[in-house]
Amino acid sequence: MTPLHPQARAVLDEIAAGRLSVSRPCDIAELRRLEQIEARFSGPPQVVASVSDMDIDGPSGPLRIRLYSPDAGPSFPAVMFMHGGGWALGSVELSDHLCRALCRASNMLVASVDYRLAPEHPFPAGLEDSFAALLWLHGQPDVSAIAVCGESAGGNLAAAIALVARERGLDDVALQVLIYPAFDPGLREPSMEHLGPRLHPDGRVRPVGGRGRALRPSTPAIRRAGHSQALRRYDPRLRELSGSRRRGSGRDR
Length: 253
Fold this sequence. Notes:
Elements: H1 6-17, H2 28-39, E1 50-58, E2 61-69, E3 76-82, H3 96-106, E4 109-113, H4 125-138, E5 143-151, H5 153-167, E6 173-179, H6 190-195, E7 221-224, H7 229-234, H8 238-244, E8 251-252
Parallel strand pairs: 3-4, 3-5, 5-6, 6-7, 7-8
Antiparallel strand pairs: 1-2, 2-4
Helix pairs in contact: 4-5
């Protein structure tokens, strides 16, 4: 048997020491404890010009955002970032490494939104928090353009915000950057059936839904879902997301 890499062994040892389970469905509190352990293995953070937290006006009170500023001139584009976590996990702190890297690579201001999470704050709390952050960025005189970005559930929020902005007459979203976004509520693709059975321990609990005309592209979009042949073998639709189809105003890579 091939021995585990020392870094992988260190992660498993911390999970065991914290008496956390990774082999059975966990409650939300246990999952949040687990993600705190995972975050400690992200490596050293990249350096950006400045990082600051601030509260803006949210739909139910103060809403925290974390700003990552680049070495840029008096006017620069901004990326509004929504973290992943199934709308119930994740945080500004846990996405700190990613936002720093995004700021460095793009030389853009990154505004990471600490939106409210389920189940304590059911839909549409997270969506409305994200839209409030978009309105705040819209009102900043030194922001020359706005992109929305998110991973997984955050990718869903980013795409939803572009749609909500269109419906509410706000035309400032110049680009969507959607990192393995959660779009299909059915969760019935081969990749989910093969790799993620723990997400549905009871087959009777499956979200269902459709794809309506409201989901037509609202602004240009870059969707990243990976290029691994192994991934595509379990989910043929990733071929579309990896660039074999381009239509409308969306852009797939």
